[in-house]
Amino acid sequence: MHRVMGDMRLGGRAIRYSQFVPKLYNYCLSLGFERGLMMPSRAFCSDESQGYPVILLTQHFGTFPFDHGRVGGKVATDRHGPHAHHGEHLVIIQASHVGYDPDGRGFGAYRRQRIATGGFGSNCGKLSAVLEWYQREYEHARNDVQLGAIDGAPAVFIDNALLDPNRGDGLLLHADRLVDPARPGPLRILSTSKAFAVSPWLLSRLEGYDWSLPKQPVGDRLSAEMFSFRRGPVVGPEGHDLLDEALAPAMPGLVTSQNPALDAARYHTQIEFDRTYRSIQREPAYRDKSVLFLSGLNVDVSPREGQLFPLTKFVPWAAYARLRDGTHFLLEQDALYDALAAQCTENADRISYDSAIDAMAAVEGIELPAV
Q1: pLDDT tens digit sequence for 27-83
Q2: What is the pTM of this model?
Q3: Cα Rg of the chain (Å, integer)
Q4: Measured between alpha carbons, how far is 146 from 152 in angstroms, rounded to an integer?
Q5: How many Å apart are CA 328 and CA 326, to the nearest integer?
Q6: How far apart are CA 247 and CA 129, in angstroms?
Q7: Cα–Cα distance measured from residue 303 to residue 109, given in angstroms and rounded to the nearest whole number
Q8: Cα separations (Å) of 339 from 235, 313, 342?
Q9: pLDDT digit string (tens) for 277-301?
């Protein structure tokens, strides 16, 4: 999975949102951004667990952030122009998100406090929904590829459905990883499957396996290198499923991961940074503005009894800045974390929600014209 995911680390890199946002604000000031000209924008999922970060962004930046986000945390790059028209010093925060159960110490779940049972649901729900089809296909293949022996020699038994060259969408086995290329023909034809001589590659991977055992499913031994997926464009209620398309190249690694929801969110954050970074470079509306774009992972630590909001943590991944004076630079994960860590968590400009709301309520009303 490392080959797909890169080096995004969680350990020692997660920052509580109550500290991350003022640090980000102060970092923007250090770049020469001015409070009265700053317009933050967020590209978050629509999940209610993302509300707490938005509240903090509003409190520290003094304005409700522009919305750059689609479901799953995908960046709506066609909104760059409108965003640019709302400020001079522009900040974009992109984050896919994943739930975390602090008691069960598991990723991908989040307590849904407003449902009748108050139980846990998948988080991010959209990422989990995209994973489901691929996970089902993988589960079938884990059972439909079996290990055993023919006349005392190692053999792999493959269900006929997986061998059908005219199959439509589904999991595609990499035959050279399973079947000996020197002996590609079946050793035995059974009612619903065929047995083949085992490839040298698989023999080396399963060194120490007792092939004389009764035939059994390959199970977790069906690793990401042994298969890929074929799936046509997925069309849902909102049209073409862009999230499915984005995650598809990583699916063999995701369905075999110990933390599929976490790795799906982590992978999506990485590819969204790369894609959005290039779109910002090409966006004419940003040409005469100062722009800071950063991506990371929102980890929604599920609230315990009595907590209104999640203890969300932000794991920074990368940042790109292009300033009005021509300065531009990229920050990789360690450099971005260090830049944020160096900032103070105090923000003298932070607004008080109670005071702001009371002040607005006390202002003399404005009568609208009868039109």
Answers
A1: 999 999 999 999 999 999 988 889 999 999 999 999 999 999 988 889 999 999 999
A2: 0.90
A3: 26
A4: 15
A5: 6
A6: 12
A7: 11
A8: 41, 17, 5
A9: 999 999 999 999 999 999 999 999 9
